[in-house]
């Protein structure tokens, strides 16, 4: 066995995944990441730029890129597309006024060549609020039925405040990516 | 002999090479194992041992049972207690429920999914029971408004151009083609079908005073397309959306989530919140208590000062919302359109002399704005 093979083996054993969190500002991306990592969520500023979080999830090491969603920042999203294994699109399900905006941005993103192979998890966040639309309604407004047939995707309701649905979502995403790129491991 | 030597030498070399290779492999293997064990211990730190699950569950159950007991006894003593006492009592139960909710949320990354769900369900059930109990024990006050023929002068604002602020005609829908910053109205209309009925809103009004009184549990609220209005929100909110305001004065109790502000002109907003997000706003003064850095985007001529609102029970609400502490962040504003070290020209601190005094929200009750 050559050295290179061994190194490659080691690398594959690490089972790294690169996850990109995007969505409109105020959707709850940073709160979600902090919540699943068990961190304090009571002092989160709107994200100016991006945060990277590395965490162990099941047998995988996730590198999560949480990018700011303000209008001013959206043109920079493309700097983070390279080598993305999983996309998490977070929706503020209670912000009905901006759902069209949200749909347009999402469909724009899905046209990106660099993201073609990425598994897509859509989080219909803020389900703890009474005024939120449920995941089925969100799917309708976001026109998810026109999704490319080859895309691996899933929409799930969740709440970063109560924690509901977050693990289900990441479980799906990580096992979907895992079965695609670590079939042999 | 010589050949033996050479052979010996070759063999030695080979063995040496072999040993070196083994050593390299061992090294790689070692660092791999070390890394694995570091990760394992990291995982052990974050994915908690069974003990903390048990600790959580027993603490949670204890608190749950005590809330249940208190609720039952409040309902029993229904007629024996004074209104204000009952309200205080229910408020404290609401506080406890929020705390329990947080407990579950904080534990959600290590608790088994089943325990998360059943604990959440337990809290939701108690919240429901609490809401039912408070509906029964405390007569509910809803939105009320009165014509602004009534007394109070609008607070002076920076609104040099407030008179030009036109409220957008909600019927004027042209299919949602325009950019969101100039016409949120068309977007909203196109979404009208999807609009949920579960959100309280004050929408499309002029020249009115609104008063909303506290719920035991926080409310979700939208203010949109208001002109020359004063709004008093006494009590907690969980989330707050504001858009399309012209020449308005808004006084709000603490918000546990964010306040999302879009398209406001010539107004004064007095807000306490975990996050303040200001978009496409002009000539407006903000009086803030905030737990993170406020942000502005596509915004000009706005000024900031500390929170300036009070009403009976506000201190408890601030504590409940984790906003009792003055963080000083009201003047640490980030302008997303001005990412340079020098101060953004789009916002300033409000000079002391120009700040409004603390607005006393109890007096609006005196004006008879309450009840309907
Ligand atoms: N009620 C409720 N509020 C939430 C939830 N998730 C996030 N929030 C609140 O929504 C606000 C925005 O959350 P952030 O995590 O900062 O949003 P973001 O998507 O990172 O925003 P940007 O960094 O600007 O792109 C905060 O006030 C959160 O407390 C949720 O599930 N329920
Ligand atoms: Mg963020």
From TrEMBL, chain A:
Q: Where does GTP bind?
A: 23-30, 69, 125-128
The answer to whether UniProt assigns keyword Nucleotide-binding to this entry is yes
State the InterPro entries in the record. Arl2 (IPR045873), ARL2/3 (IPR044612), P-loop_NTPase (IPR027417), Small_GTP-bd (IPR005225), Small_GTPase_ARF/SAR (IPR006689)
Database matches in SUPFAM superfamilies: P-loop containing nucleoside triphosphate hydrolases
Sorted alphabetically, which keywords does the UniProt record give?
A: GTP-binding, Lipoprotein, Magnesium, Metal-binding, Myristate, Nucleotide-binding
The record's listing under NCBIfam families reads: small_GTP
What protein name applies here?
A: ADP-ribosylation factor-like protein 2
> Lineage from the top down?
Eukaryota, Viridiplantae, Streptophyta, Embryophyta, Marchantiophyta
Automatic annotation (TrEMBL), chain B:
For bias type Polar residues, the affected ranges are 155-165
The superkingdom of the source organism is Eukaryota
Region feature (Disordered): 154-205
Q: Does the keyword Transmembrane helix apply?
A: no
Where does it mainly reside?
cytoplasm
Where in or outside the cell? Cytoplasm
Return the Pfam families for the record. TBCC (PF07986), TBCC_N (PF16752)
Q: Which UniProt keywords apply?
A: Acetylation, Chaperone, Coiled coil, Cytoplasm
Segments of skewed composition (Low complexity): 173-185
This one is known as: C-CAP/cofactor C-like domain-containing protein
Origin species? Riccia fluitans
């Amino acid at each position: 066995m050559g050295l290179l093979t061994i190194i490659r083996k080691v690398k594959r054993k690490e089972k790294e995944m690169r996850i990109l969190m995007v969505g409109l500002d105020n959707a709850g991306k940073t709160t979600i990441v902090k919540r699943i990592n068990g961190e304090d969520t009571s002092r989160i500023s709107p994200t100016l730029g991006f945060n990277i979080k590395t965490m162990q999830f099941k047998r995988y090491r996730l590198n999560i890129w949480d990018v700011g969603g303000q209008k001013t920042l959206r043109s920079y999203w493309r700097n983070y597309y390279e080598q993305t294994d999983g996309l998490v699109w977070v929706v503020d399900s209670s912000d009905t006024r901006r759902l069209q905006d949200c749909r347009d941005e999402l469909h724009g993103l899905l046209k990106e060549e660099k993201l073609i192979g990425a598994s897509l998890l859509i989080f219909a966040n803020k389900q703890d609020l009474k005024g939120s639309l449920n995941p089925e309604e969100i799917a309708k407004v976001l026109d998810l039925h026109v999704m490319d047939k080859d895309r691996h995707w899933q929409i799930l309701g969740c709440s970063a405040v109560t924690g509901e649905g977050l693990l289900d979502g990441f479980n799906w995403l990580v096992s979907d990516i895992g079965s695609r790129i670590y079939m042999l491991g | 002999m010589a050949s033996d030597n050479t052979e010996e030498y070759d063999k030695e070399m080979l063995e040496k090479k072999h040993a070196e290779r083994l050593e390299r492999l061992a090294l790689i293997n070692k660092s791999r194992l070390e890394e694995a064990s570091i990760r394992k211990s990291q995982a052990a730190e974050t994915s908690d041992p069974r003990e903390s699950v048990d600790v959580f569950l027993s603490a949670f159950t204890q608190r749950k049972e005590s809330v249940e007991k208190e609720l039952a006894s409040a309902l029993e003593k229904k007629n024996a207690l004074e209104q204000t006492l009952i309200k205080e009592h229910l408020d404290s139960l609401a506080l406890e429920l929020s705390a329990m909710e947080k407990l579950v949320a904080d534990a959600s990354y290590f608790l088994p999914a089943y325990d998360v769900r059943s604990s959440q369900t337990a809290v939701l059930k108690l919240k429901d029971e609490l809401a039912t109990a408070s509906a029964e024990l405390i007569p509910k006050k809803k939105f009320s408004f009165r014509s602004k023929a009534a007394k109070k002068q609008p607070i002076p604002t920076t609104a040099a151009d407030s008179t030009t602020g036109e409220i957008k005609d909600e019927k004027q829908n042209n299919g949602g083609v325009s950019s969101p910053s100039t016409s949120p109205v068309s977007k909203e209309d196109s979404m009208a079908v999807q609009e949920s009925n579960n959100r309280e809103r004050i929408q499309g009004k002029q020249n009115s005073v609104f008063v909303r009184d506290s719920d035991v549990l926080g409310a979700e609220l939208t203010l949109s397309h208001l002109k020359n209005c004063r709004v008093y929100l006494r009590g907690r909110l969980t989330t707050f959306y504001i858009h399309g305001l012209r020449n308005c004065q808004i006084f709000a109790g603490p918000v546990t989530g964010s306040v999302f502000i879009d398209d406001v002109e010539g107004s004064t907003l007095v807000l306490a919140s975990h996050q303040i997000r200001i978009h496409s706003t002009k000539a407006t003064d903000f009086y803030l208590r905030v737990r993170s850095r406020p942000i502005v985007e596509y915004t000009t001529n706005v000024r900031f000062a500390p929170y300036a609102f009070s009403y009976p029970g506000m201190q408890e609400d601030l504590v409940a919302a984790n906003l009792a502490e003055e963080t000083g962040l009201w003047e640490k504003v980030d302008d997303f359109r001005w990412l340079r070290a020098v101060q953004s020209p789009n916002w300033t601190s409000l000079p002391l002399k120009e700040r409004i005094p603390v607005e006393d929200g109890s007096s609006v009750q005196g004006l008879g704005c309450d009840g309907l």
